[in-house]
């Protein structure tokens, strides 16, 4: 085979390969997407106006942030799920000090991507008497800019060691999670204070939340 035929043969092979890849994409539109890492999430900043979201609680009732703010400030906690021991400890600590938070007229809600049927497990493990919300399709986490996807090794550990079963626990199989951030929202709908750290082991303290509420 001469050089010109060899070049032509390689060109045809490349064209066929590209065509094959395009065909796979068209046939299978659910190919892996590029999800961001925890360090790429920045979170809404203090002073920002928050989105007025709705979500289902443990009983399947509709929670409205707008309506909750009519009664006072709202403290929003993002947590990963009932399988997360750090989350459970944090929520239990907040429950132990719920009276202190509520004395400022504040409403405490905790948001996770776990479906309504699993919110009860979090309540059982933590004793939470405050509102637990299902963030369907990660819409709340996206609006607050806290959503990310753990790396493959983390997902294996969460699913096998901790029993998270993220694909079935969430509204889709992308296995995204929220940074476990805390936001204190004033009645004007603006963020008065936040705790935001990509390190899931670092959480807001009750004292910090109370100090933020004292400023209203």
Descriptive overview:
By secondary structure, this protein is α+β, with helices and mostly antiparallel strands. It has two domains: 1-31; 32-213, 3-Layer(aba) Sandwich (Glutaredoxin), CATH 3.40.30. The protein has nine helices and nine strands. The chain has helices spanning 3-27, 65-69, 85-96, 98-102, 116-126, 139-143, 152-161, 166-169, 206-213; strands spanning 54-57, 62-64, 74-78, 107-112, 131-134, 147-148, 177-178, 182-185, 191-195. The strands form two sheets. It has a seven-stranded mixed β-sheet with strand order 2-1-5-4-3-8-9. The protein is globular. The chain starts with a helix and ends with a helix. The relative contact order is 0.18.
Give the topology.
Elements: H1 3-27, E1 54-57, E2 62-64, H2 65-69, E3 74-78, H3 85-96, H4 98-102, E4 107-112, H5 116-126, E5 131-134, H6 139-143, E6 147-148, H7 152-161, H8 166-169, E7 177-178, E8 182-185, E9 191-195, H9 206-213
Parallel strand pairs: 3-4, 4-5
Antiparallel strand pairs: 1-2, 1-5, 3-8, 6-7, 8-9
């Amino acid at each position: 085979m001469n050089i010109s035929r060899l070049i032509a043969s390689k060109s045809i092979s490349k064209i066929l390969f590209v065509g094959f890849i395009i065909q796979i994409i068209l046939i299978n539109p659910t190919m892996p997407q590029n999800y961001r890492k925890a360090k790429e999430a920045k979170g809404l900043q203090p002073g920002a106006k928050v989105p007025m979201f709705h979500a289902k609680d443990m009983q399947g009732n509709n929670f409205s942030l707008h309506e909750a703010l009519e009664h006072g400030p709202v403290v929003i906690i993002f947590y990963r799920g009932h399988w997360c021991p750090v989350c459970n400890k944090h929520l239990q600590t907040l429950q132990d000090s719920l009276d202190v938070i509520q004395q400022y007229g504040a409403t405490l809600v905790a948001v996770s991507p776990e479906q309504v049927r699993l919110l009860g497990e979090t309540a059982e493990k933590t004793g939470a008497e405050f509102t637990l919300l299902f963030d369907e399709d990660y819409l709340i986490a996206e609006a607050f800019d806290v959503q990310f996807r753990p790396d493959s090794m983390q997902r294996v550990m969460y699913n096998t060691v901790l029993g998270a079963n993220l694909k079935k626990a969430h509204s889709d199989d992308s296995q995204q999670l929220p940074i476990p951030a805390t936001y204190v929202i004033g009645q004007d709908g603006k963020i008065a204070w936040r705790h935001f750290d990509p390190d899931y082991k670092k959480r807001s303290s009750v004292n910090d939340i109370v100090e933020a509420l004292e400023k209203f």
